[in-house]
Amino acid sequence: MTNLPQGWEVKKLGDIVKLKNGFAFKSNLFCDIGIPIIRIKNIQNENIVLDDLVFCNPNDYKNNLDNYLIQKNDILIAMSGATTGKIGIYNLNDKAYLNQRIGLLRIDNNILRKYVFWFLYCNSEQNLTNALGAAQPNLSTEQIHNIQIPLPKDIKEQERIVGILDELSSHVKNLKQNYQAQIKDLQELKNSLLDKAFKGEL
């Protein structure tokens, strides 16, 4: 990366984050109540969605599972499968465990989490391809550590960039919701007209 503005620097992701890997929870010990386990399928649309959850009773394991608890605002990244590189932010206060093949990123206090998140989100394909050297279905801890991120040293500049991207993201979501609502209204109108057409009411 060259020609960065004055006051910017390039860092390896491994220099500014702590990366933790998930635990190999046993599917035969999944239960209907307990502490939820966040799996790769729960990482969707920039967030962690609580659809199709499985749960864990920590008493079923000899391991200390506290090391795999997710904290609010942790960044999660899929490390294998067709959705490798997909990321989301855990925005909940509730306890949850991190499943295997998901990486958890905790950011240094002097760097905005959202800045790192938006960099990974907006440049995921290019940066992950650079880290991997080719399109592969798996991402290692070392490869994540080696991703290079351009970083403003001034946290106020990070805040300014994050503010712009947050606003844009909110605008896009609103447009999608309005578009989906319009499609639903048009489909209902179409069905109504079809019904009337074959009743001789048009």
TrEMBL record:
Residues 5-183 form the Type I restriction modification DNA specificity domain. One of its GO terms (molecular function) is DNA binding. The keyword Coiled coil applies. CDD domains: RMtype1_S_LdeBORF1052P-TRD2-CR2. One of its GO terms (biological process) is DNA restriction-modification system. Transmembrane segments: none annotated. InterPro entries: Restrct_endonuc_typeI_TRD, Restrct_endonuc_typeI_TRD_sf, Type-I_RS_S_subunit. It comes from the Bacteria. Residues 165-196 form a coiled coil. Keywords: Coiled coil, DNA-binding, Restriction system. Belongs to the type-I restriction system S methylase family. This is Type I restriction modification DNA specificity domain-containing protein. It comes from Campylobacter jejuni.
